[in-house]
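re: ur question from earlier - yeah i can do the single chain one, its not a big deal. heres the input i used so u can compare w yours
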Amino acid sequence: MSKTKVIAFANNKGGSGKTTTCSNVACALALDGKKVLMIDGDMQLNLTISYFDEEKALSFAESGKNIYSAIKDGVELTSCIAETEYEGLDLIPSSSLMSGIEFELFSKWQRETVFKKLLEPVRARGYYDYILIDAPPTLGGWVMNVLCASDYLVIPVEASPWGLFGLANMFEFTAQVKEISPKLEILGIAVTKADERKKYFKQTLETLKSMEGVRLFNTYVRVDSTVEWSQDNSVPVVAFKKSSRSAQEYTMLAKEIESYVNR
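and the output i got, formated as tokens:
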């Protein structure tokens, strides 16, 4: 079994398509025969709701088998894993109580690496090929924990006039994380919600391409109403309608991510 690789999806700018990208890349990898564990690190539960209906998602939040309980009470992460309906694809749910995670971390010893230590037994099993983590759109102690526990970082960026807002802060924050966890590598920027008819789409691409030392994935995901329909049905678009443009683009993005991780 190859070494488990941990990939975080993070951007401090809300609306970047971060959760949708994480959800669909994970599913695409699983449909390709990989064993994947997703971790929902956001109090909004969006990654959890991408696979389970709202009632089930709330039951996870109340059960004590979620990421918040693992951090607060020291519950083993392995006991928090929920199976999705897709073979080889599992999820550790989030909780609305994640709103208090910064307070919980503040009181813990070596608080920047609390999550890394919790995750280590899961990595050590070697069962999963990939662990994908959906981080909240903030820059704080919890996101620092997520990045310290990760090997790679993917930054989804919305192709809009506001999409690049705060990206410099994201890079500065990542540089701080690398002082604690030098192994962390920015795998690349994934452009989402692209509309090739808009002038600002080309401007966004030109700006991102001009950034030195940062990879821009060749695959970008265009605006597609099928994504919204899939979300409404709690099904990733790569499984909801495989023939759709967005499903094909997320599948290509997953292959591109995998090729860089295993280079």
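The beta strands are 5-9, 36-40, 82-83, 89-92, 130-134, 152-158, 185-192. not sure if urs matches, ping me
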